[in-house]
Amino acid sequence: MKHLVLAACIGAFSLTTATAVMAQEPAKKTTSKKASTKKKAAAGTAAAAGAAAAVTPNGEKWQCELGNNLYIAGDMLRDEVLTVHWQGKDYKLPRQATVTGADRYYDARTGLDLVVIPSKAMLFNKNLGQRLADDCQSAAMQAGAAAPTQAGGLRAPATTPLLVTPPGGPTQVPEGAQQSAAPKQ
Description:
rod-shaped; 2 domains; eight-stranded antiparallel β-sheet; 8 strands; alpha+beta
């Protein structure tokens, strides 16, 4: 009989203890979940801030319509690959040959396509089939200069006439050195 009373006491004690522990346990879990969620959110924010700080834009800033900006690093007159900083990431875009005279830099892997004409630059995403940025201009272009394109560097500037009298008037040729414009027969 002593064993039966002892077993009943132990059973009652363990039932009470288990109920108390189970009642406290969910509260501890939600508290720890909230704390771990806050820690993860803080760590994610810090990682995002660190990633944003790690990729600082370099190159020349080009302002686009709708408040977008892109940064172009490299010399458009001679470089075969430009680095374009767009939406917090750097992209290496190799030069592509064109028949229109526009400078085109396109990376098939990312789908980014930068087209530069003398008056503006446009950024496309060929994979999504959309224009990301339009009417992008550098500070010099906003002041009236043409884009520093390879095609533009091969042509005379539009503001300079092709036949210009040199400063100081026409060049004088000595009388004995003048040649006849008529062909010799």
